[in-house]
Amino acid sequence: MKSTTEYLTFNIPNRRGFVNITRQVQQIVDQSKINEGLCLVNAMHITASVFINDAESGLLNDFENWLENLAPHEPLSNYRHNLTGEDNADAHLKRSVMGREVVVAVTGGILDFGPWEQIFYGEFDGRRNKRVLVKVIGE
Fold this sequence. Notes:
By secondary structure, the chain is α+β, with helices and mostly antiparallel strands. The protein contains 3 helices and 8 strands.
């Protein structure tokens, strides 16, 4: 069995945003030369997410609005975590809802998705460098 580990770095200029990272992940799979296996894509920060969904701009906007309704950024005083001097309690909650990682099968050297599926990086407390681990294992 072989494995490849790479890191993607993101610096989203706003507090929140979504980036379709499917092509970058597929490039890592291509470079790995692994034909059959699994690909783990993992956000390495507690206020960021990796998830799979449809690459449709209206849906991404819906996620943004839904998450902000679920865990609004303000007022900051709504969250005990923010009493520590932080202002990102909402980002931790949003990450918990959207998830930490995805695992995608690799079949014939290609990420094996269902219809419309794409991999996204979700940022909920941006404006600094954050990493995403991509690990491909298999034969």
